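Section: Multi-chain targets

For targets with more than one molecule, the full set of components is provided together so that the structure can be written out for the assembly as a whole rather than chain by chain. Components appear in the order listed by the source. The example entry contains two components.
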Amino acid sequence: MATTDGIRSFVTLNEFDIDHVCIVLVHSTDFPGSYHGYDDAWSFAKFTENFRIEIIKIDGNDMEFDMIGIDAALANAFRRILLAEVPIMAADKIFIHNNTSIIQSEVLAHRLGLIPINADPRMFEYRQEDDEDGSDMDTIEFELKVKCSRNTSSSSDIPDPSEIYKNSKVTTKQLKWLPRGNQATLHQANPIRPVDEDILIAKLRPGQAIDLRMHCVKGVGQDHAKFSPVATASYRLLPKIILKKTVRGEQAERLAKCFLAE
Amino acid sequence: MIQGENSSDTGFWGDNKSLTFVLEGEDHTLGNALRYIIMKNPDVEFCGYNVPHPTESRINFRIQSRGRPAVEILKQGLQDLSQTCDHVLATFDQAVKDYKGDSEIKMETD
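Its structure, encoded as tokens over all components, is:
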């Protein structure tokens, strides 16, 4: 690994090497002038020749892929853009008409903000800062009107709240989209709704009620984490493990076990 | 907003080969990617950036070139970066398309 090619292509982590000073080289060094005999000048032609993307899996909300032939500086920029600069819609203004639940209004408003909304942000504009009401171009409106009562028809002996009360749990399923202007026809193919129907917003007991409206606007993760389109996005460098000596017998089996897929 | 700060004002030598650009509203996302691609330019003697204060949304971006004006180097860097990102996007779209096509064929045969 101590060859020029090795130093140029790898970040070395001599983690458990006690004889030598630990070398942790985290920056790329393949710049013009760094190495004699190498042409490290930027070349788009060379980049397109080497660059590949290999998709490992796409599974619902999960995706994993290899980017080959790109520097960490660029990969990291994409990761940061996913986290903080790709816009989505999220609840930003909550108008609470009534809240007699035990969850405080400001906490409730914060929880509602974090609910992922299934809407294509490209079909909306950013709302102006001084705009109080918004328009159909920049606002999605939801209504949440829930009242808890006793379930008189329940014959259950078990004191299960979801059995003996009606609406003891408020979930995202109870959020009702109120289309504005031509939103109903515009989003006919993919109606606007919370991404998940089973997110618990609050718990109620008979006599308690929540009545509110929420305005969802377009925003970016830089402003608030609720506008981040990803749960997380991360990358790592492709590891290369070099065994310093031959491993045999029981040790070899133990080592092999470390690399078994789940 | 890009604000070029002439090197003669900051006490370095007085030509347009060395400049510090103040990039308003930018952070490590652009800073490090742009630094990487500008450092790949053989005309560049030095390139680096810093975030003067974590609560202020701006970076200071320094370029010292061997001959060409620093503004030209910055422009070239931004163009290279933009071109590269376009290629990455196109490659990614194609990879997703191929993956989805493959998995559909698999499902049909299953």
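Chain B has one domain: 2-109.
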